[in-house]
Amino acid sequence: MKTLILLLTLIAGPLSAQPSDSLRIRSIYDEALARGQAYEWLRYLSKQIGPRLSGSAGAQKAVDWTKQLMEQQGFDRVFLQEVMVPHWVRGAKEEAYFRIGKQKTAVPIAALGGSVATAPKGVEAPVVEVKTFQELRELGAEKVKGKIVFFNRPMDPTRLNTFEAYGGAVEQRANGATEAARLGAVGAIVRSMTTAQDDNPHTGAMRYGTGVPLIPTAAISTNGADLLSKSLKENPNLTFFFRQDCESLPDARSYNVVGEIRGSEKPEEIIVVGGHLDSWDLGEGAHDDGAGCMQAVEVLRIMKTLGIRPKRTIRAVMFMNEENGLRGGIGYADYARKNNEKHLAAVESDNGGFTPRGFGIVGTPEQRAKAMRWKELLAPYGLHDIGPGGGGADIGPLAQSGTVLFGFKPDSQRYFDYHHTGIDRFEAVNPRELALGAASMAALVYLIDTYGL
Ligand SMILES: [Zn+2]
Q1: Where in the chain is CATH 3.40.630.10?
Q2: For 2-87+250-451, CATH number?
Q3: N or C: which terminus of the chain carries fewer CB neighbours within 10 A?
Q4: Short-list 187, 219, 227, 190, CA closest to 202
Q5: Which CATH architecture has domain 91-245?
Q6: What spacing in Å lies between the alpha carbon of 349 and ligand 1's midpoint?
Q7: CA distance linking residue 66 with residue 62, whole number of Å
């Protein structure tokens, strides 16, 4: 028997996938599809807990509940990692309209995360519309001073991957207020980051540069943006009014929530699978990123239920504060360094609970090549898009110490319909798509654990 194993090892090589792997992966999908739990857990997280912005009561409830959930699953160890997080609050619902003569037209807006409030009675000023920072600079202080800058560059609809379209537009949200304030603007209104045409404003993080006045900034829905743009062409002297009373409070104490199954052969080598537990405050954070968190817990549950004893330690990590600070991701990597933990790989699901397409890999060419040898095993499940790509914001800080990062890639067409809005609710998630994602992550974790990287 020993000779046979040796012979087989010589023929196949120790790193090649074995026929039993395809059966194992089949059983992982069977478990997720027939007896999956992620969807019902997500229902609880979305409906009973709801929005989980860092520092909020909802975020704390989510920490307590996910810890309890993982304890109930009987994982070997469940623990919290303390992190201090930014604590921004939206306050009363925003109000906005543009005015032509005596006629006011209301438009939906949402303050951007991190923005300051307007004056208590709001701010009203003429508007300059631009599509790029370059265009804004060319206008110069003379034409911008005292005005509200309206950033109206849409996400490029021709991009097949909507994350690329997002990447091409999101600087307006992140830095628009700073660029506008440099030229003396009194406010910044940003077209929502979505390819959808509707009335939902999309919030999201912004930051102020140093040495410029902090001016209030908000997202306007795409319908609102188009209406404003059209009206401006007809009435260049119209004024825009908005009022918001958001504020940044002192940093708050919060936590990453970690559950693990201890490795049987190399417990000191850790494989992380995770998502972020915090969400924006407008919706339920179902796709972003309740889905990823529940899938991560489901990965461990599936392994435990199927009796897969991993060689390495597998951790489900619910990162805190991805949305407006990344303190959880940074803190997790800091703890790993301090505790001399070796993280072999980290898999993040933070692109929504949609139909799986593949994984993006951050690692050396050799590590990528090794993971890409598993393509054949994953192809029957629709995972064809496996290759170089982004890992995930929360796991990013682990890359410094050589951890190989995997970003789960579901189909991206609908993600930005919901992203950071009031309609990112449980109802927007399909149970089979969510389960397939969890199974895909479990299959990948199984292969990484079995063959290393
Ligand atoms: Zn997210």
Answers
A1: 2-87+250-451
A2: 3.40.630.10
A3: N
A4: 219
A5: 3-Layer(bba) Sandwich (3.50)
A6: 8
A7: 6
- CA neighbor of 149 nearest in space, from 158, 160, 141: 141
Ligand 1 centroid to 321 CA: how many Å?
10
How far, in Å, from the CA of 325 to the mean position of ligand 1?
12
Q: How many CA atoms lie within 13 A of 175 on its CB side?
A: 12
Report d(CA 133, CA 168) in Å as an integer: 13
For CATH 3.50.30.30, the residue range(s) in the chain are 91-245
Q: What is the DSSP letter of 422?
A: T
Ligand 1 centre and the CA of 323: distance in Å? 6
Structural contact between residues 167 and 174, judged by C-beta atoms closer than 8 angstroms: no
Q: pLDDT tens, position by position, for the chain (453 residues)?
A: 444 444 444 444 445 566 699 999 999 999 999 999 999 999 999 999 999 999 999 999 999 999 999 999 999 999 999 999 999 999 999 999 999 999 999 999 999 999 999 999 999 999 999 999 999 999 999 999 999 999 999 999 999 999 999 999 999 999 999 999 999 999 999 999 999 999 999 999 999 999 999 999 999 999 999 999 999 999 999 999 999 999 999 999 999 999 999 999 999 999 999 999 999 999 999 999 999 999 999 999 999 999 999 999 999 999 999 999 999 999 999 999 999 999 999 999 999 999 999 999 999 999 999 999 999 999 999 999 999 998 999 999 999 999 999 999 999 999 999 999 999 999 999 999 999 999 999 999 999 999 999
Q: How far is the CA of 199 from the centre of ligand 1 (A)?
A: 21
Residue 225 host element (H or E): helix 222-234
Q: Which whole-number Å values give the CA distances from 393 to 145, 257, 327, in the listed order? A: 36, 17, 11
82 part of the active site: no
CB-based neighbours (< 5 A) of ligand 1, an ion: 288-289, 350
The Cβ of residue 42 has, within 10 Å, a number of other Cβ atoms equal to 25
How far, in Å, is the centroid of ligand 1 from the Cα of 42?
15
- Phi/psi of residue 345, each to 5°? -150, 155
pTM of this structure: 0.94
Tokens (6 digits) for 369: 């090549």
